[in-house]
Amino acid sequence: MATISNATIATGDGSFIIDKTEIGEPLADEVLIKMKAAGICHTDYDSLHWGRPIVMGHEGAGIVVKAGEDITTLAPGDSVILNWATPCGNCFQCREGNEHI
């Protein structure tokens, strides 16, 4: 069952709108989060001009609502923070302990 949520969406032409979005069930490797806070950062500002719609506010915090079947380290009710940078474990920054970069 899909969930309807408000989102700030960069329209790609330099502006943004607040509009309703439909959030589907999480896939096997995804987690559905009820957002409690989100920030608009420099990347979001840049996304205003990326030429296509994109949901802004990718840095935030919330509570796990559902976890996909492949997720083993999170469960509904867990508090989480979101990070746009997924560490690869192999690049220079990861090898130096800077997984956040």
Please describe the structure with a list of short key phrases separated by commas or semicolons.
three-stranded antiparallel β-sheet, 2 helices, globular, single chain, mainly beta, Quinone Oxidoreductase, Chain A, domain 1, 101 residues, 10% helix, 6 strands
Outline the structure in words:
The chain is mostly beta strands and 101 residues long. The chain has one domain (3-95): Quinone Oxidoreductase, Chain A, domain 1. The protein contains 2 helices and 6 strands. The strands form 2 sheets. The chain has a 3-stranded antiparallel sheet, with no helix packed on it. It has a 3-stranded antiparallel sheet with strand order 3-5-6, with no helix packed on it. The longest helix is centred in the middle third of the chain and has 6 residues, at 42-47. The radius of gyration is 15 Å and the shape is globular.
CATH architecture: Alpha-Beta Complex
Helix content: under 10%
The major β-sheet equals: 3 strands, antiparallel
CATH fold topology: Quinone Oxidoreductase, Chain A, domain 1
| β-strand number | 6
Strand % is 35-45%
Oligomer: single chain
Q: Order of strands side by side in the largest beta sheet? A: 2-1-4
Q: What is the CA–CA distance across the termini? A: 35 Å
